[in-house]
From TrEMBL:
Domain Serine acetyltransferase N-terminal, first and last residues per copy: 14-118
SUPFAM superfamilies, per the entry: Trimeric LpxA-like enzymes
Top-level EC class as recorded in UniProt: transferase
Organism in which the protein naturally occurs: Rhabdonatronobacter sediminivivens
Protein's name in the database: Serine acetyltransferase
PROSITE patterns to which the protein is assigned, alphabetical: HEXAPEP_TRANSFERASES
Pfam family, one: SATase_N
GO molecular function annotations of the record: serine O-acetyltransferase activity
Family classification: Belongs to the transferase hexapeptide repeat family.
SMART domains with a match to the protein in the record: SATase_N
Gene Ontology, cellular component aspect: cytoplasm
Length: 269
């Protein structure tokens, strides 16, 4: 078992770092030793640890940890891209959030990260026609984390959702790779229309706190949406929009807004 675990860790640098940090955390705070052992050190792979956290956080009187863990294990075994995306999201959070100084923090403590990974399980269920189970997971994620992502939405990888309070992402929304969004963001519709009715967010976009992007509109790659803005029309690539309703106030100001996380408007308005 030890040799197998060593081989897995050698091939998975993200898991190796989380595992090593967990040992350091136990030494620094022995009272949390049981928590870190059950959530990280007890498991042989990142996927197993992720499935455990998923089941532990979302279990309730209606649904046991065992059933939820079996679902998560099945999903990640069937679709390895779930684990790959979870690693990319974790690294993105570490690189972009100044409050994150260890790889284990998102997995253990950050509800935005945990909610996003639970969505990925729900999306797997939804894509396979297991709609009621996917909606159950969506409901529990909303109840536990205050994040409501419809399982039919399509989310890329390398996504950071900072703080994550009151995030709402609708059924036909599409979010590209390497997107960063802060709390109270809504990617919603504009009324009772059916069909394709939610925003399409390009790669590398930064969405500020409290921004509302509404309707079947496109936000071009590497753009910035200022905090508190209400976006009702298409946003060109590499631009900054601000206001209610939002208007173009300048260029994005850098090549990768979602990575630099610079939300200050300097002379644009």
């Amino acid at each position: 078992m030890e040799k197998r675990e060593a081989r897995i860790k050698a091939l998975d640098p993200v898991w190796r770092r989380i595992h090593d940090e967990a040992h350091e955390a136990v030494a620094a705070e022995p009272l949390l030793g049981g928590v870190f052992h059950s959530s990280i050190l007890h498991h042989t792979t990142f996927e197993k640890a992720l499935a455990f956290r998923f089941s532990l956080k979302l279990a309730s009187g209606e649904m046991s940890e065992q059933i939820l863990r079996e679902i998560a294990d099945e999903a990640m075994a069937d679709d390895p891209s779930i684990g790959a995306a979870a690693r990319a999201d974790l690294v993105a959070t570490y690189e972009r959030d100044p409050a994150c100084n260890r790889f284990l923090q998102p997995l253990m403590f950050f509800k935005g990260y945990q909610a996003l990974q639970a969505y990925r399980i729900a999306h797997w269920l939804h894509a396979r026609g297991r709609l009621d189970f996917s909606y159950f997971v969506q409901m529990r994620v909303s109840e536990v984390f205050g994040v409501d992502i419809h399982p039919g939405a399509r989310m890329g990888r390398g996504i950071m959702i900072d703080h994550a309070h009151s995030i709402v992402i609708g059924e036909t929304a599409v979010v590209g790779d390497n997107v960063s969004m802060l709390h109270s963001v809504t990617l919603g519709g504009t009324g009772k229309e059916d069909g394709d009715r939610h925003p399409k967010i390009g790669d590398g976009v930064l969405i500020g706190a409290g921004a509302k992007v509404l309707g079947n509109i496109t936000v071009g790659h590497c753009s910035r949406i200022a905090a508190g803005s209400v976006v009702l029309e298409d946003v060109p690539p590499k631009s900054t929009v601000a206001g209610v309703p939002a208007r173009i106030v300048g260029e994005a100001g850098c090549a990768q807004p979602s990575i630099t996380m610079d939300q200050i408007l300097r002379g644009e308005v």
